[in-house]
Every structure is written in C-alpha cells, then in structure tokens.
Amino acid sequence: MIQVENLTKYFGPVLAVSEVTFAVAQGEIVGFLGPNGAGKTTTMRVLTTYLPATSGTARVAGHDVRTESMDVRRNIGYLPESVPLYAEMRVEEYLNFRAKLKGVDRKQRPQRIDYCLGRCRIREVRRRLINTLSKGYRQRVGLADAMVHDPPILILDEPTTGLDPLQIRETLNLIRELGEQHTILLSTHILSEVEAVCRRVIIVNAGHIGLDKKLSELATDEAVIVLEVRGPAEQVHNVLRTTEGVAQVAPQPLGDGLVGFEIRTHQHRDLRETISQRIVKNGWTIRRLDLRRRTLEDHFIDVVMRDEDAYLTPSSELPGEADGASSSEGALAGRNE
Amino acid sequence: MPSKAITENLERSATPDLWRPAREVAPSVVRAEDPTVARWLGLTGLLLVTVGSVALIATALGRGSWVGPIWGSLCSVTGLALLLFHATVDGEVQVRRTYGMLGYLWLAAAVLVTVLPINGPPGTQFFPYGFLFLSLALFFLLPFAHNETEMAWRRKTVAILGLVGVALALTGLIGSNVSRAFLLGEHGPYGLLLSVLGLAYLWAYIGMRGTADDLAYRAGLGVGAVGVVVFLVALIRSLVASWTHSESYLIPAGLLLMGLGLLYALVSAGLCSENRVVVLARRELTAFFYSPIAYIVMLCLTLVAGLLFYIFLNLIIQQSQPGETPLVEPVIRFYIIDWFPIICVTLVVPALTMRLLSEERRSGTLEVLMTAPLGEGAVVLSKFLAALILYMVVWMPWGLYLVALRIQGRQPFDYYPLLSFFFALLATGAGFLSMGLFFSSLTRNQIIAFFLTVVGMLALLMVFFLKRPLAPDSAGYTILSSISYVDLWINSLEGTLSPRYLMFHISAAVFWLFVTVKVMEARRWA
Questions:
Q1: Claim to verify: residue A113 and residue A34 sit in the same structural domain
Q2: Which residues of B touch A70 (CB under 8 A)?
Q3: Nearest to B369 by CA among A117, A143, A140, A102
C-alpha cells in the first residue's frame, strides 16, 4: 500500500530525510519510531503530498505522490502532530464540513459521521465548540476527521502525545481496532505504544532508517540464557560447553562462590530446561536461570548511538551484532535486576 | 522479577483484555444554568418595546407623546432585538412557547393587515406593515423551532415556514413577471419584497431541516431552478424589448428580476451545493461572523454612513431653500463621494482580508486543508468569494439609509445610479480583495498582511491625485483615470458606466488571484 524508495528531503542545506526506503503492506500497522528531529514528520508530510520530496519516489495506494496527489489524498486519512482544527466550529459541524470536502456522499454522511463520533467516543461533545475541548478530545476529533471518509490508509503523527494514561489506552485500543480494517502508519517516540499496537517497527534516526523489522522477528532474535550457579567455575563451564546445542559460553565471575554465565545456543534454541537438569544432576544449585532478549529499547538506543558509524540498509543486521550486543547488555545489565 | 522480553502481538490478542474501555462520559459535568442575564435583557426588551410602540401608536393617532417618534422607533427596535436575544438563549418550555406564539401572532397579523381593506383596497398596508410583521414572524419563529425539543411542534413550525416561503416567493415572482407596477410600484416594491421575504423563509426551512434530508434538499434545488427560470425569462424579455425597440424592459424591471433570479440561484447553490469551493466559502463566511471583525466593520460603516447621510440631508434641505440653486439629479453622489467612504474602504478591505490565508498558515490548519482532495485554486477562490460577499454585505447600511429617505421623503429620486454604483463597487471590490488576499498569503502574521494591503490601497488612491496635474488629453491622464477607482465611483454615480472602466479592476482581480494560487502552490515546488 505504501512504497517509499530512496526518499530524500532537503530543507535548504539541512538534510531531513536521507535515502529512506520502506514498504507497508495492506492491513499492517507499522510504527515509525525515532527520536525528535529524526525525520518522521517530514516523511509523513511527503507521503500525504503536503511537501514535495527532493529526490526519490513514494507511492501510496498505487498512486505516485508527486504526479497523482489527488488520488493519494482520497485514499489517506492524516492526523498531524499539532491536531489543527478550526476552533470556532462545533465538533459535528466540523466533521460535516470535512466530510463534504472529502466527498462523502450526501445520503451516507449522517450515518458515517455518527459512526465516527461513536467510534472515537466524542458523541457527548458533538455540540461543543472545538476551542472548549481539552487536548484529548481534540485529538479524538482529529482522528474522527481522519477516518470520516473511510480511507484505506491512515497516517497518524504522534497520535498520543499529550493524552492522559486512560486516553492513551483508549486511543491505542481504537488504533488496534482500526488496524483490522485499515493500513496504519503511526509515528511515535514512546516504545510501549509500538509494542502494544504495531506489528512492525521502523526506527529512524537523523533522516535514515536504522531498523525495519517485524516485532515477531525481533522477539525471536538471538536470546541469551543467563545462568548463575553456586559451584566450581571450571567444571560448570565444562558441563555447559559440552551440552548439546550450546554455541558459546561466556563466564562472569561473581565472587562469593557464585559463577555467572551467558550462554548462546545454536539456532536460538531454548535450552534452559536441559541446562538446569544437567546442573542439578551434578549437585550444584541454580540461583538464576533467565532468558534475556534484547528489548525494543535496546534496539532503539543501538540505532541512535551507532549513527556516527555506517548507515544501514534496512532489514539487515550489523555483522558485529554479538559483540555490540554483549557490550550494550553489559552496560544495561544492572537494569535487569 | 518481570521479564522484559518482547511479547508477540498474537499472544496479547489471544488473552482477552480484562480492562474494558470506560463508558463515554463528557469531559466535564454540564450544569444547566438559568439564563438569568438573558431573562433580564428580555424583560428590558419587553419594557422598551412597550414604551416604543405606545409612542409610535400615539404619533400615528395624532396625539402627542413624551417619547417622540424617533425615540419611540429606537426603543422598539432595541427592545425587539433584546427579545430576540432572549428567545435564542433561553430554551425553557414556557419562554420558548411564548415566543413561538408571538411569532405566530405576527404571522396572523401580517395576513390580516394584507388581506383586510385598511385605508384602501386590500394589500395597500403590505408595505410597510405586512412586510414588517412577516419579517418579525420569521425572526421569532426561528429560535422557537430551534429550541423546541418536542418534535411534533418543531416539525409543524418548520413546515409552516416552508409553506409560507413558497407562497410568498411564488406570489412575488409571478406577480412581478406579470405586472411591472407590482414589482416596483408607487405604493412600494411589493414584488421585490415578497420575493426576498419568500427566499428568507425558504432559506430558514432548508437550514432547519438540513440538506442531508431529502425533502429539504429537493426544496433547495427547486429554489435554484426557480431562480434560473426567472433569470432567463427576464433576460429574454429584456432582449426582446430592445430588439423590438419597444419600451425598455431592462431598466429597472428586467435588471431587478435578473438580480432576484440570480439571488435565488446563489442561495440555492450556497445551501445545497456539494462543490468544494461553495463548501469552503460557506465555512469562511460563518468564520467571519464568529470573529468580531465583521460586526465591528458593519458597526463602523453604519455610523459613518449615518454621519454622511446627516450631512447629505442638510445639504438637500439647505439647497432647496428659496434663493439657493437646488441640487441637480442624480443627488446620490453627494451622499457617497466624500472623504469618509474612501477612508473606510482603505481600512475595511485590509481588515476583511488580513486573516484569510495567514491564519491558516499560522494555526496549521493549512496542513489538513491541503491534504484533503482539493486544489489550491479552490481554496483561494473560496476565500475570495466569501470576502466579496461579506464586502457587499457591509456596504448595505448605506443603501438602507437611502430606503429611509425614500419612505420619509415620499418623493422618488433617481436611483438608477445606485445600480451602476453596485457594479462599480463589485468590480473595484474584487480588485481590492484579491490584492488583500495575495498579501495575506505571503505571511503568517496578520498585521503585516494588514499593512501591506493598506499600502496597496493607498497606492491605488494616489492614482487619483497623480492624474490631476496632467493635461486631460494626454495618454498619462487617460491611463491613470482608467486605473483610478475614485473616478470610477464618481462616474458610476453620475449614471455613466461603461464596462471598459470595470475591465482594469476585473483583470487586476484575476491577476492577483492567479499570483496567490502560485504562491500557495510554491510550497509544493521541490
């Protein structure tokens, strides 16, 4: 539904978006993650035909953004970050106006608006002036406006900024529900939201993509078994090394008779039970046995930190991932306590 | 210790979320407040209306009264305005039904006054009393229908509004076509008033039902169709009259009927059309009336017009004294051509255009506007049309004073220059407003847009003075006098208006609009 190829955008001398390439298939909910100033909003503005790209192409719903912008606009619903609304209009009046602009048929308009009011939970405020509404309600009005013409694609720029926790939960629920029928591209810098709602995440930093993967893939990413045993270090190490399926064992002396290990397995197999059986059979006690995966936060910080080095092409891993992982995990080890 | 492992979405959706979304409650508790202020104002209004009407009736019956007729009419009008305000704000059952009854009473009074032979054959009292009562009926029935929560009453009232509208419109339009004297006779412009009033009632009917409703939508289309038919009939008759060299139909009957037809068509288009330009223009017009700008401008213009009217009247009276040379027709030019209207227009145009595009940029609404399937041309054109309509509406107070002169003076004066002045105003207005729109598109700051437009207006004014020292037959003089809008106004008020003088302003309007569209499109030039 969305295909972006080598999109670049310069604002004068400033490079905002650099050779960004990604695709969003129909029905996917994709999270566009990145620190502030990464180029998320600019990319979205190019996709919604508000700004032109300096180079590169983007196709939305099969139409080119530059040459067929009207067709693109008919197929998207856009909610900008600042949620701009006409403050002097009433909610229902505003939705009616936007529905007419977007060409919603006259006969279906009242039902469609009623549906959007109900879905976005703004029925109670339908007769209120927009400038008397709080931020959360305005955001919902903006969302109702984005979906009033039932577009196949929704592009939402930071849809939960400024909302209270209850409203964030409701909005995310709504986005998840909408994701069943629409394709959604959602930008945010809150990781938990991405984890809660999206199936795929694209991490951008300083205008280029650092990571573009399905969350399920990240979940089956290389995991490390963390083991703490009370026993003789050398022997435990041997037992572990000789266990079938173990690829690498990294010992960490902990003192006080405890030895810690970080074990990597072939094909990312979960060998916790095998290992615990062998350790216990030898008479040693296990203080800790855990499977530590890299969190999204780890990936995010990774992408942001390694920017001074090479740029990545999407959907590929850095060759030195193992070393990089262990060092960053070492640094974050304290957080896992 | 909770694991920080990433969980897949599938896992999460498999287990039903125990948290259910809260029942939707409005953000704040709304407490129904007694409209105390409105009630006090309504009471004051009632008092004023009583005092005023007693004074007016006393004057009509020939008796003296403490409160003179001028104060009497002022009191009555203010009182009615306050009553209307109360009717709109206070939705309580008894209050709104009382106002509803009042509205129906006005309607009955209008019918009686028109039908019964009072001071002459039936119908003589339609102008002004019948017309007045019908307008008041509309004003009072509208808030009643709007506030009424019981559907039966509401539907009946709205239906009555529609029926009255149809009756008035048909009588007015058919009567005007049949008889020229009916349209604009010495007893008063019956046809004109009936048609306009009918349109107002129909507008209320369509507005109250909303165009999503089939019947109202078809009614709106009907109004448009009628307007087009009337326009064409008047056009054909005027052409036929000029070809057969018989008495001119065009002025004034033909022109007025074409104007009426056009008005009907425009109102219909404004209400029913789904065209994006119309939808945007309508929103723009309502936004104008939400901000105080429109009201302030209208108030100032009314006051200035009042002052000028006073001076004008003094001039007429003075010049008609024995020994003085009376004013030569057309006298209207002494009313309109003066310093004040020039200063007014120099300030009013920037005030109307300054927020049009700069506000959209500043508040970010341009982003949602331009990501909807509309072109920049539609946006610019809609803002221009809304500003032009508002501009013509704010000049109305000047015309109203002349109506008062006509009624009070009981003497017809040459009003043909008013028609040519209308066109001159329209053309020059188009030129000014499009220039103001262009300056508004350049900046986010409304004040800068205001000042740039003032400078532009002053430059156009200067042309009038620059032309003075030149010799009248030089090329420079001719060019400058085609550009100068003051000359155009003066000429039109003297009754001479050739279309080529309008050309400069119309072409200027097209030019400024084109440049504005290009400025808006520049955002999308890579």
A1: yes
A2: 373, 375
A3: A102
pLDDT band at A322 (very low <50, low <70, confident <90, very high): very low
Q: So what's the pLDDT on residue A318?
A: 47
Q: Is residue B482 part of a domain?
A: yes
> Are A178 and A231 in the same domain?
no
Chain B contact for A57, CB < 8 A? no
- Over range B271-280, report the average pLDDT: 90
How large is the average pLDDT for residues B176-180? 78
Give a yes or no: residue A10 inside a domain.
yes
Contact B365 A291 (CB under 8 A): no
> What domain count does chain A have?
2
Confidence of residue B25 (pLDDT cuts 50, 70, 90): low
* Domain tally, chain B: 2
Return the number of other C-beta atoms located less than 10 Å from residue A166's C-beta. Answer: 12
pLDDT at B321 over 60: yes
Mean pLDDT over each residue of chain B, to the nearest integer: 83
Asked if B373's CB is within 8 angstroms of A84's CB, the reply is no
Residue of B3, B8, B366 to mutate when probing chain A, most A C-beta within 10 A: B8
Across the interface, whether the CB atoms of B6 and A296 are under 8 A apart is answered: yes
Q: Which residues of B touch A (CB under 8 A)?
A: 1, 3-10, 12, 17, 19, 21-22, 24-27, 211-212, 217, 274, 276, 279-280, 283, 286-287, 290-291, 363-365, 367-368, 370-375, 523-526
Cβ count near B179 (within 10 Å): 13
According to DSSP, the residues that pair with A265 across neighbouring strands are: A246
Closest CA to A115 of A143, A90, A156: A143
* Residues β-bridged to residue A76: A153
Contacts of B24 (CB under 8 A, 6+ apart): A121, A123, A124
Where a domain ends, among B90, B108, B127? B90
In this complex, which of B6, B12, B212 lies closest to A110 when CB atoms are compared?
A: B212
Which is more confidently placed, B23 or B261? Answer: B261
Range of the domain at A241: 222-292
- Among partner residues A73, A106, A109, which is closest to B373 by beta-carbon distance? A73
Asked if A108 has any chain B CB less than 8 Å from its own CB, the reply is no
Residue B22 pLDDT grade (very low, low, confident, very high; cuts 50, 70, 90): low
> Quick one: A12 and A141 in the same domain?
yes
Task: Judge whether B309 lies within some domain.
Answer: yes
Cβ-nearest to B374 among A89, A101, A136: A101
Environment class of residue A281 by beta-carbon count within 10 Å: exposed (0-12), middle (13-18) or buried (19+)? Answer: exposed
- Residues in A closer than 8 angstroms to B287, CB to CB, are 86, 88-89
Question: How far is B265 from B228, CA to CA, in rounded Å?
Answer: 6
Q: Which of A35-39, B3-7, B48-52, B205-209 is predicted least confidently?
A: B3-7
CATH of the domain at A266: 3.30.70.1710
What residue in B sits closest to A54 (Cα-Cα)?
Answer: B526
Give mean pLDDT, residues B430-441: 95
The domain in which residue B75 lies consists of 37-90
State whether A9 and A137 are in the same domain: yes
Between A79-93, B229-243, B387-401, B408-422, the lowest mean confidence (pLDDT) is in B408-422
| Inter-residue contact A21 to A212 (CB < 8 Å) | no
